[in-house]
Design goal:
By secondary structure, the protein is an alpha+beta fold. Strand 7 and strand 8 form a beta hairpin. The protein is globular. The chain has an eight-stranded mixed β-sheet. The chain is built from three helices and eight strands.
Amino acid sequence: MLGRLNHVAIAVPDLAAACATYRDMLGAELSEPAALPEHGVTVVFIDVGNTKIELLEPLGADSPIAAFLAKNPSGGMHHVCYEVPDIAAARDQLKQKGARVLGNGDLRIGAHGKPVLFLHPKDFNGTLIELEQE
């Protein structure tokens, strides 16, 4: 079912400051910030060759990232994203095996313009998992 690691997401309290750190200290080339109101975040991607790093900042008070940052004020790893060849089939198979899909289980369009869904971290050793259609 799992394909390649698409990205590791890091929640940050200040996207501009995080971008400056990655650019100035690590020499990263950054994408332009993209607001994703349907997910409650603004994102920047860093391509590291074999995968990407996604920096996430809350977009509005109702952002799920805001709740994460309330518990982790400095930020931190938020989720990992894996590609799957057929996201609807993966969702159905995971639900049959007892995994919890966050939200109502409907697929949403993610930052890369492809269908995504999130799996409950309690079902995966405390790690929030995002699946993205290849």
